[in-house]
Amino acid sequence: MQDDFDHSNDVPEYALDTLAIRAGHHRTFEQEHSEPIFPTSSFVYESAAEAARKFGGKESGNVYSRFTNPTVHTFERRLAALEGAERCVATSSGMAAILSTALALLSQGDEIVASRSLFGSTVSLFDKYLGKFGITTRYVELSDLDAWERAITPATKLLFAETPSNPLSEVADIAALSKLAKEHGALLAIDNCFLTPALQQPIALGADLVIHSATKYLDGQGRAIGGAVVGRFDLLEEVFGVVRTCGPCLSPFNAWIFTKGLETLSLRMKAHSENALALARWLAEHRAVERVHYSGLEHHAQHALAKKQQRGFGAVLGVEVINGQQGAWQVIDATRLLSITGNLGDVKTTITHPGTTTHGRLSDAQREAAGIAPGLIRIAVGLEDQQDIRTDLARGLDALAG
Ligand SMILES: *Cc1c(COP(=O)(O)O)cnc(C)c1O
């Protein structure tokens, strides 16, 4: 890897909370305490000979910020350390991370087996764009291992899952999927956006690749768009080649925001999870609520698995209220504090009606198959005071219960 960093802070023996604050940091001659930003497109050389060595890869060092940039590199080293991965490549968005992975590791005629409950743009990418180049995707029930196995063919090169899923909080057994992938000579990629390495480390469970939308919890405060792929060195070398050549690279400024975001990631994820669990329990008792989907609740179908493979349950939950879409809209419209938006992974609590927003383009039958009931509301629980969040939701829920 092109890299002239001092790695003295990247000690793998350190615990996650220490790595989140220290890993990947290097100091310039100014001896600054906090991580610097290098907003520069290119780098200069002492001589023609040095330029030739650096361009030729004979000497490490930065050439051009589409290839490498010190600020971006700090973010990559820190995230790789947190995921327990050999390497990370940062990208301009979460979608760019998925696209770059596909371009790097798949060819015409290859197949993907993916969970049905994926981020909407991921499904469009797989079907509409990869499909154009002869890469086919089959979708299966996230938690149904037999269905995954049945969908695999000799052409399957990639298994792709998001766990826990959005908005129903379904959980896939990562270790079992990894075993399946290995048996069939395929790679396993996990989109770890909802839990982050603070709560789940897919590499340790056998995943080959981890995908991030840094836009969500890695930043955590809704300030920037970015993404990353982490995993084995040889696989990431291919992904790096795509990013370097095709250009979906991360800007240094955004990388700096994410680097500073990682420093509080663990604390935030714990607080997000605690707030979400308390809210899920309270919602489950409310008369206007039919069902709460959250893997942290004991009645959830994969609660035991979630407890085993995660260090927390995350902060995205689905709540089904009475009176279908009308009831859901009534509760959403009665809020004054919560943000009505499709985004998530923010200190601000967000609320949305999946049936008419994130899953609005599906047919009624597809929505039903995906478990998106008309009365379903998705809440991405933020870090505001628990009682204030409840009060905001109770206004609509109490009115609905009559
Ligand atoms: C938001 C999101 C993405 C896409 O990330 P962008 O940064 O918006 O491109 C991918 N996967 C999941 C699970 C997401 O929530």
Could you describe the 3D structure shown?
The structure is a single chain. With 402 residues, the protein is an alpha/beta fold. It folds into two domains: 16-262, Aspartate Aminotransferase, domain 2 (3-Layer(aba) Sandwich), CATH 3.40.640.10; 265-401, Alpha-Beta Complex (Aspartate Aminotransferase, domain 1). Helices cover 39% and strands 14% of the residues. The chain has 15 helices and twelve strands. It has helices spanning 16-22, 48-55, 70-83, 94-105, 120-130, 145-151, 174-183, 196-199, 233-246, 252-263, 265-284, 303-309, 324-333, 364-369, 386-401, and strands at residues 87-91, 111-115, 136-140, 156-162, 187-191, 209-213, 227-231, 289-293, 316-321, 339-340, 350-352, 376-380. It starts with 15 loop residues before the first helix and ends with a helix. Residues 1-5 have low confidence and may be disordered. Bound molecules: pyridoxal-5'-phosphate. Pyridoxal-5'-phosphate (PLP) is lined by residues 93-95, 119, 121-122, 162, 191, 193, 213, 215-216, 225, 227.
Secondary structure blueprint with pairings:
Blueprint lengths: L15 H7 L25 H8 L14 H14 L3 E5 L2 H12 L5 E5 L4 H11 L5 E5 L4 H7 L4 E7 L11 H10 L3 E5 L4 H4 L9 E5 L13 E5 L1 H14 L5 H12 L1 H20 L4 E5 L9 H7 L6 E6 L2 H10 L5 E2 L9 E3 L11 H6 L6 E5 L5 H16 L1
Parallel strand pairs: 2-3, 2-4, 4-5, 5-6, 10-11
Antiparallel strand pairs: 1-7, 6-7, 8-9, 9-12, 11-12
